[in-house]
Amino acid sequence: MYAFTLERPASVADAARLAAAGGKPLAGGQTLLASMKLRLAAPEQLVDLGGIRELVGIRKEGNAFVIGAMTRHLDVGANAEIKAAFPALAWLADHIGDRQVRAMGTIGGSLANNDPSACYPSAVLGSGATVITSKREIAADDFFQGLFATALEEGELITAVRFPIPKRAAYEKLRQKASNFPLVGIFVTQGDGGVRVAVTGAGNGVFRHTGLEDALSKSFTPEAAASVKIDASDLNSDLHATAAYRANLISVLTQRAVRKALG
User: Fold this and answer.
1) How far apart are alpha carbons 246 and 175 in whole angstroms?
2) pLDDT tens sequence across 101-126
3) Segment holding 88, helix H or strand E
4) What are residue 251's phi and psi, to 5 degrees?
5) DSSP-assigned letters across all residues of 20-53
6) Given CB 3.0 to 4.6 Å as the disulfide criterion, which of 29, 74, 153, 170 pairs with 33?
7) DSSP classification of residue 54
8) Residue 106 and residue 146 in contact, taking contact as beta carbons nearer than 8 Å
9) Is this model's pTM higher than 0.85 or not?
10) Are 158 and 210 contained in the same domain?
């Protein structure tokens, strides 16, 4: 690990100013600190967001939950209101990585990193959530831009995420046992705006599957999901699974998610 300075701002404005000047924001540190230890990243200045109280918390606003960017996975998974009104989101948060990761990892850090196999991006995209930043609000469909890429500008910080509460929702994944990242994860919602199906772990970033969405909009059943042919041509193939295997997982896990959502 190379030498660096550590800043601990007490407000979003101060943190954004430091980030705009070249400081690297530090949220839960689950990716950044590991990269620094391996000398794959060498920021000269870290901006620790842990002391900014306005970035932590969960509140219900109308038919939506607003979750602060520095809220830990463990707290989302244990929140009684989310468990009652949006259990799929609570289940996802409660099954990220292992307990140590859930105790430190944050929703804002996960989304800003946008790992192609992370769980939270599928919840945000699958819910049609809104990412709130220090500058603006960004719709989920505009936020994710491929492998580790997002719509965030230099010095722009995620402050919260607004999740509309769907009528039905479920998350299913098959974990890669060594890393606990999903080989494939599927987040399905049915709401006033229709059906959304978000896929993580299968490509170069989280994406919506329009074929499954169209089929499930006509008939929200496992059989409708099973009728959709999944194209493997743009899916990942690596030492953990072939593209064809991931395509099959997308189908199987979507069927399970729909069945779970139906209760």
Assistant:
1) 12
2) 999 999 999 999 999 999 999 999 99
3) helix 87-93
4) -65, -50
5) HTTPEEESS-TTHHHHHHTTS---SEEEE-TT-G
6) 29
7) G
8) no
9) yes
10) no
Q: Are 127 and 33 in the same domain?
A: yes
* 195 and 151 together in one domain: no
Q: What is the pLDDT of residues 44-78, one digit of tens each?
A: 999 999 999 999 999 999 999 999 999 999 999 99
User: Does residue 156 share a domain with residue 52?
Assistant: yes
Pairing of strands 5-7, 45-48: parallel
Q: Which residue has the tokens 């809220």?
A: 71
Q: Which domain holds residue 133?
A: 5-164
C-alpha span between 54 and 10 (Å, rounded):
9
What percentage of the chain carries pLDDT values higher than 70? 100
Tell whether 220 and 141 lie within a shared domain.
no
Which residues have CB under 8 Å from 38's CB, separation 6+?
Answer: none
Clarify whether residues 151 and 58 are in a common domain: yes
> What gap in Å lies between CA 216 and CA 141, rounded to an integer?
19
How many domains are there within the chain? 2
β 194-200/182-191 pair status: antiparallel
CA 242 from centroid of its chain's CA atoms: 23
Structure tokens at 263: 């209760």
Our CA angle for 16, 111, 187, nearest 5°, is 155
Cα 63 off chain centre by = 20
